[in-house]
Write a structure and sequence with these properties.
Elements: E1 8-13, H1 17-28, E2 33-39, H2 42-50, E3 57-61, H3 69-77, E4 84-89, H4 97-103, E5 107-110, H5 115-126, H6 134-144, H7 151-154, H8 162-172, H9 177-184, H10 188-202, H11 207-216
Parallel strand pairs: 1-2, 1-3, 3-4, 4-5
Helix pairs in contact: 2-3, 3-4, 8-10, 8-11, 9-10
Length: 225
């Protein structure tokens, strides 16, 4: 259940009827998840999302007619009380995935994922976490990161303490909270607190956006560990 005890409201966006209906059927079978809408493309998703109160998670396909998932994600992220977007992709190194993350998505899920992985993904995203395993983060960033320094982006980091900046760099390198805690000799709770403060100070929603910020600011470069 969500914090208020109500089911997580989900919209499934895919231009393939069988894929869309199959995902909806699996999710609707969970007591804490309710599929409240389905959409056949990005434009359809934008229209339907506006009509749903407290929409929690949008499962968004990337390649669709009329409006693709990247543009739809960008527009949804700009709305008030924006739902969290989970990108559905066929390949874990799909060239569009990184663009979608930049557009505001909170993670991605492979279409070949298992039933349990699908259900868990919705719950993780709804809880405010990002769905990117560290190895996936590393591969995506290594392939798609823009390594040029951006002073305007770097200026956003001035509000961070030295420790928060250090944690940000480790997050950007794909480390989990447990790995960061071990490396810095801190408790996982302390690391979680640092991550939460870092996100709040920089106005970011999750770890995915933090990774992108760190690379845009030049704090980390592709291939660096």
């Amino acid at each position: 259940m969500s914090d208020g005890g109500a089911p997580i409201k989900v919209m499934v966006v895919d231009d393939q009827d069988l894929v869309r209906d199959g995902i909806a059927m699996i999710l609707d079978g969970q007591p804490d998840i309710e599929v409240v809408a389905q959409a056949v493309d990005g434009a359809d998703a934008i229209r339907k999302a506006a009509a749903v109160l407290d929409l929690g998670v949008v499962l968004m396909d990337v390649r669709m007619p009329v409006m693709d998932g990247i543009e739809a994600t960008r527009r949804l992220a700009a709305t008030v009380n924006a739902p969290r977007v989970l990108i559905l992709t066929t390949f874990d190194l799909d060239e569009y995935v990184y663009d979608a993350l930049r557009a505001g998505a909170s993670g991605f899920l492979l279409k070949r994922s298992s039933r349990d992985e699908l259900i868990n993904a919705v719950r993780v995203i709804a809880a405010g976490d990002a769905l990117l395993a560290p190895p996936v983060t590393r591969r995506l960033i290594d392939r798609f990161a823009d390594n040029s320094l951006d002073p305007s982006v770097a200026a956003r980091l001035d509000v961070l303490t030295a420790r928060e900046r250090e944690v940000l760099i480790l997050v950007a390198k794909g480390n989990s909270n447990a790995e960061i805690a071990a490396g810095l000799h801190l408790t996982e709770h302390t690391v979680k607190t640092h991550v939460s403060r870092m996100l709040a100070k920089t106005g970011l929603r999750d770890r995915v956006q933090a990774v992108i910020l760190a690379y845009d600011a030049g704090l980390v470069t592709a291939g660096q560990r």
